[in-house]
Amino acid sequence: MPTQSPRWYSAHARKTDVAIQNCRNIGIIAHIDAGKTTTTERMLHYAGFTRRIGGMPIKSKDVDSGDTIMDYMKQERERGITITSAAITFGWKTHRINLIDTPGHVDFTIEVERSIRVLDGAVTILDAVAGVEAQTETVWQQATRQGIPRIAFVNKMDRAGAGFGRTVREMRTRLGCRPVVVQIPLMESPSGASRVGSNDAQFAGVVDVLTMETLRWDSEFSGTKITRSLLDASYPDQTLYQEAVKARIALVEQLSALDENIIELFLTLENHMAIETKDLQAAIRRLTLSSIIVPVLCGASFRNIGVQPLIDSVVDYLPSPDDRPATLARLPDGKVAEIGVGGLKERLCALAFKVIHDAKRGPMVFVRVYAGQLNERTQLWNSSTHSKERANKLLQMYAMDVEEIPHITKGNIGVILGLKDTRTGDTLLDAHDPRKGLTLSGIKVPSPVFFASVEPMSTSDEKPVEEAIKALIREDPSLGMRVDEETGQTLLGGMGELHLEVAMERMLSDFKVKAEMGKMRISYKETMKGPGIVSKLLSWEYDREILGKRGRARAGVSVERLERSEDGGESTSSEGRECGSANTGSEEHDGNEIVITLADKADADAVTEMIPLSEMVLPSGSTDLPIPVLRTAVRNGILSALSRGPLLGYAQTHLKVRLAALHLYGTESTPAAISSCVSAAVTEAIRLGGDPST
Ligand code: GDP
Ligand code: MG
């Protein structure tokens, strides 16, 4: 491997406009302790960002001490590198890699889901001793659901009891993927003779099965120097050679079964060893991009072994933003459209995937640009909150420092400073974009289920506490705040106990507020009596005078209780899942499903291919309001009804609400009247479908 000066790499990363094909947005997914932090540190080091590798080799953490998320956060902070930043950029050869942080704890599954959303590819780190662990499985399934191509790194190969083959088998059986081994461990007995997998042997490097080379890392320069030597029949250790040949044959056989080009080459050359590295690489890239295979590498980050080939593989096998399917966004009329396919004239569309409160800079909004280009000092439109924003400054985050940049190009990730209301999950457009209600689909924010009171130490602490909670909610919308109507206490809500503890810890340490947390309690969400129950209310008349003006509308709705599925987040109805598919008018909100298939006659003809005519709702009566305005009014009505249950006022969950009919009375049917009518109809239908005894 040509040794390039680390400075060269970092200099390259600063060329803001790297071609989109040379950009990689990746995340590392792993069970806690698999070595995510260590591997990240080493990556940054080899990319030229840290002068010295932090704490090497540091004493191993006591696994039995109970690794809570607090230790974990403190530990990451104490290491001094900003790897807790939501995303950092570094250069590798001619590529730019944006490494996006994915939290490692189950309580933060929402956070993981949200950060996976902006990844184009992921590196899975496995502990060679522990193999596939619980959290590996959870995060793996999330990545599968979102169609994220992955490569795997079997880490800690230096530990006693490390099992490379066993871990690969577990990937097959427990993760249900097709691992393709591109490296095997190079074991060496202390006497010097290399042996694959022998008992007294030590992990000394890796064998590259594609190039048939051994790779060894120097220990003097923290693994910066790699020595490659060819592994052929003349190699002194014949056992190693045979192992490598076996792995090479297995690799070619696997690829032949999946890739036409490789089978053709194999039929021509009739030799597993003769197929060129570049052809194998190209096939592995194709198959990885379509998530058919998962290339597997190995190493020991802590011993500085195996990290550079891992970064090479990120570049070689993981997708650029251009290799990904077109991004989907929801238009104000409920239809789904592809964005980012407009070439040069493309309008800006960016996703705020993380908001971090910074004591010096204020809120830092991490964005990924999906279409167009985001320029500094421009007016933006937040289509999720419907408010204007201004991007004062744009930043690129590196490991040790920050650079101000003039723009964030398509496919890239950066930070906006100066935004006032933007929250995690919001969509940002150009202020002049006529598509005011266009939002990127994909990030669901569930409402909190655990609550705890937050008690300010004194009255002068009340305001800071409230402000800290608000800032935290902007960062993490799955947190919530509410005032207990009986006691007047401020309640902080979250997804689990640890989630609340971390939030509290952050209030004390980052926001320096003086407060205490009270006892934890669970909030029960309301829903209808049993799964599959449908409550229909086909004609609900609304007629009321507000400020001397008459408001009228008539709506029909049906409400169905959805099945709770095992993996928690998702729900299915007896009519099957139709969420998210184009033009069905269906959307998911807070564990509920909302179906509004409103259309006018022309529209109905156009979309009946997607939806049977019997399911379309054509408004009767008369109105001047266009369909999108009607749809928004209906949607607002449904959301308002779902936000407060008829029994105890808790938010509703697991309901499928469908608009069944809408009758309008000309100018008396204002959007407000329509919303009120629909809201009352839904509330009544839920009440009718609820348990009569309560
Ligand atoms: P994370 O929780 O996934 O971020 O894992 P860390 O990077 O914090 O590593 C967890 C523990 O495993 C730490 O004590 C590391 O020093 C140790 N560790 C990480 N990589 C290796 C490795 O390659 N070999 C060995 N023996 N220990 C490692
Ligand atoms: Mg870590």
UniProtKB/TrEMBL annotation:
InterPro entries: EF-G-like_DII (IPR053905), EFG_II (IPR041095), EFG_III (IPR009022), EFG_III/V (IPR035647), G_TR_CS (IPR031157), P-loop_NTPase (IPR027417), Ribosomal_Su5_D2-typ_SF (IPR020568), Ribsml_uS5_D2-typ_fold_subgr (IPR014721). It comes from the Eukaryota. Catalyzes the GTP-dependent ribosomal translocation step during translation elongation. During this step, the ribosome changes from the pre-translocational (PRE) to the post-translocational (POST) state as the newly formed A-site-bound peptidyl-tRNA and P-site-bound deacylated tRNA move to the P and E sites, respectively. Catalyzes the coordinated movement of the two tRNA molecules, the mRNA and conformational changes in the ribosome. NCBIfam families: small_GTP (TIGR00231). GO terms for cellular component: mitochondrial matrix. Keywords: GTP-binding, Mitochondrion, Nucleotide-binding, Protein biosynthesis. It comes from Modicella reniformis. One of its GO terms (biological process) is ribosome disassembly. GO terms for molecular function: GTP binding; GTPase activity. Residues 557-593 are annotated as: Disordered. Residues 21-322 form the Tr-type G domain. This is Elongation factor 2.
